[in-house]
Amino acid sequence: MDLVEIWRNSLGELEVSISRANFTTWFKNTFILDFKKGILTIGVPTFFVEDWLKKKYLSEIEKALAHQISEEIKQIKFKVATPSTEQVVRFEKDKVVHTPVDNKEAIKPTHIVQTLTENSTLNDYYRFDNFVVGSSNQLAYAAADAVSKTPGIVYNPLFIYGDSGLGKTHLMQAIGHHVLSKNPNKRILYVSSETFVNDYISAVESGSGKAKDFKNRYRNVDVLLIDDIQFLSGKEGTQEEFFHTFNHLHQNKKQVVLTADRTPKAIKGLERRLQTRFEGGMVADIGLPDLETRAAILRQKAKVQNFEVPDDVINHIAENIKSSVRELEGALTKIFAFCNLKQCEPNMSVASEILGNIIEDRRTTITPDLIIREICKYFHVPVEDLLGRKRNKEIVRPRQVAMYLLRHEASLSFPEIGREMGGKDHTTIMHGCTKVESEISQDLRLKDEISNIKNKVHLVVS
Question: Rounded distance, CA 379 to CA 13, Å?
């Protein structure tokens, strides 16, 4: 069963019934990832695309696939993934290259290829003019903008780190789009580190011919963009190959851009020589967006979707969903889908109905006990010492981090934090929170510690 051919023909059928703009926006870089035991999995470039296809086009997708597959499709699932070279369906001038559904004997033109060209891995949406700049991402944005104007010259490599869902991939791909807008002949390759690892393993298993193809793919580019580089941790063979790939590109003044969820130094299992090379360029972080930035992001998303949302609804979402841009987008998409289905206008009543459980669950699941437990595990300190009266350095720092996170993640008042922290005075709590807030922008280690603990807390409740 040729899954690429099945998806090509299915897309050919879908593009007839969907407007060109929507078809190009939502179906580009999609592919059939797997089909086993009646469960068909479609690979998509982002969670936003996954949510939209589920809500808006699932029935059309089911019909199109049913025309191509005689076997019963019990369920269609979606998964965020990057297609391999064999899985891509190429778009040509905003149209999918496909074999007509009603002509099984049609001969495919000889010029059609199924290889994944470098520039086709970019998502059209991820551009600088769609990126909302705020205090939490200003440095990363400025660095990305500079790189896009003079690739290979300044900040090479560019290493962007931060929590999941804050815009690292968006900035990375925006660089690629800007470079192409100035020079369409440039070769841009964006992949996840998982794709790099899988390509390397495939090359090793298949012999010298495949190995040559691997090197040609990753070294004959002008800009290499690799997402979530932390997943190279502990993979010695892949790190060795990436080291040589990196050196080749860097020595030839080709731009390398990497993202991760932590600084190079904090990636355990990363070879020292790679760590120093990553740190040799520009290391920029993206933090959690503040309230104003979250509201601006929501307005931008609504504008792109041509969806008018009242300010009180925007503010309600922004005030209650703080963990990631991706979650903000998901909340807005849910409201959009509900209003589209019910043919109603978005308002506070709709927002409360759709997001009530999400917001309430978040408020109730991130408890003081959970935060304190994760801090004690992270810093390896006993709970009784954290909540007690000891004032040695090994205890004071975790204690102040606990105060800060209880304030910002559990939304407790200063007196409430004092009670949770063993009966401490609220002025002590205020001092601890203020100290962390003043140092977090200057102390990168402290910033990483807080980010890692927050990740662990959100992982537990998700």
Answer: 56
How many CB atoms within 10 Å of residue 196?
27
Residue 70 burial class via C-beta count within 10 angstroms: exposed 0-12, middle 13-18, buried 19 and up: exposed
110-119 pLDDT per residue, tens: 333 333 345 5
Q: Which residues contact 48 (CB under 8 A, 6 or more apart)?
A: 326, 329, 330, 333
* Sheet of strand 255-260: strand arrangement: 188-192, 223-227, 255-260, 158-162, 282-286
pTM equals 0.57
Task: Report residue 259: phi and psi, to 5°.
Answer: -125, 155
Q: Where in 187-341 does DSSP place strands (E)?
A: 188-192, 223-227, 255-260, 282-286
Half-sphere exposure of 267 (CA within 13 A, CB side): 27
Q: How far is CA 30 from CA 11, 50, 85, 391, 409, in A?
A: 10, 10, 13, 56, 36
The 10s digit of each residue's pLDDT in 334-387 is 888 888 887 888 888 888 877 776 665 555 567 899 999 999 999 999 999 999
What does the block give as tokens for 220? 């004959």
